[in-house]
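Subject: two folds for Thursday's group meeting

Dear M.,

Sorry for the delay on this. The cluster queue was jammed most of the week, so I only got both jobs back this morning. I'm pasting them in the order they finished. Each block is the input sequence followed by the predicted structure tokens. Could you check whether the formatting survives your parser before we put anything on slides? The first protein is the one we discussed after the seminar.
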Amino acid sequence: MSDDFVQVYEYHQYCPPGAQRVIASGFSPWIGEMDESTVFKYPLNPGGDRTRLELEHQILEIVGPHPRIIGLKRLSEAGLYLERTANGTLYSYLTDRTKSPPSIQQRLAWCREATEAVAHVHSKRVIHCDIQPTNLLLDENLHLKLSDFQGNVISEEGQVILEGGSAEPCRFFRPRPDPFDADFRTDLFALGCTIYFIMMGHCVFH
């Protein structure tokens, strides 16, 4: 019998003061609804590790305001306050069978906006490292905003000066010997896979 064992972590959903309800969970934080314009990302356990939230705050400050980037509001001791988008993720919108299929013009507009978001991020020497339809959010006018920044910041000399790792899922993953060795091509490959999803309604890789 193998001596290997699996360690199980159990997390209980909770709402911090001011949050109306939990609307999603990410890789490490809960995401709560504060009001119609604001969401709040906070640790899985009360008083838990804020490292990834602090990293996202740093990266969003470097990226700066842009129409295609989720709006940063502030970082507190409790967590990270961000802009809330009215229509959820691009993935949920495209896979919702109760909605009419978007027109070709709308799909092409989303492809352009996703490309604009990635181009802006790269102009700031930031690698997002998790481009996919679940991280593209839709505002009240169905414009795209890129969210969930956990990637790397690269110096002009090509050195990683702020590291958040590479976290893209297998269907958006650019093959490479070291899965944690991300570069700008990592985002471009994932963007191409995302554009395919936008146009076709399903992933290019299964």
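Second protein, same layout:
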Amino acid sequence: MIALPAVGELEAIAVAVGREAASAVRSSADDVTTLDTKSTPTDVVTAADLAVETMIRDRLRAATPGAAIIGEEHGDTGGDTELAWVVDPIDGTVNYLHGLPFVSVSIAAAVDGRVVAGVVVDVHRNEVFSAAAGCGSRMDGRPVTVSCPPALDRALVATGYAYDADVRAAQGQVLASLIGRVADVRGFGSTALHLAWVACGRLDGFYQSHANRWDYAAGALIAEEAGAVVRLPDGPAGMLVAAAPSVAEDLAAAVS
């Protein structure tokens, strides 16, 4: 059993490691090497994904010896069951591979399964979004809050897509039913960034089915602590929704 840090300390650890990881991702951006694929031929793994996750794991182990680590690339590393880190070293790997500037690092700390601290670092804009449970959300250390659109038809909403073509086709049907009911829809290819942008009011809402925990663990907390209504998926194929309170219920109903 390790000594459990306070949530503010966990946030500070995540921020420090996230900043270092984002710098490493940026430094590798001009020489992206694809090493493998995962769930589909388009679900790529780059050398940077593996190297950056290894670095993150090393830093987190040093800061919180014995904690479990759940990562997208290297899987689950057993450890203390009370504290676990949930890591996505590059959220937006396809963007990264194609040189599109929508890439983030996501690190969350969970205590007894509940996320209590996290960071999302925008690699290209070098913006740092973070939160600790009960302490609000911040962008570069300054408090942020969600937007307040008057109705769903005035809301700018974002979504994300799965790698599996059949799932993506079904997601397209949901989008087709929604797009005439909102102000507009965007998709930038990074779940963590979408959630961070809900937190700071750049987006009024976000939804996505088939999201992985490492994609949304930190961002969902950041959005919630900024005042968003967040509905976590009820399973691997479930729907994740995060939105300003004024439109959250209508958005969730529209995409359910």
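Two things I noticed about the second structure. The radius of gyration is 17 Å. The CA atoms of residues 56 and 62 lie 10 Å apart.

Cheers,
T.
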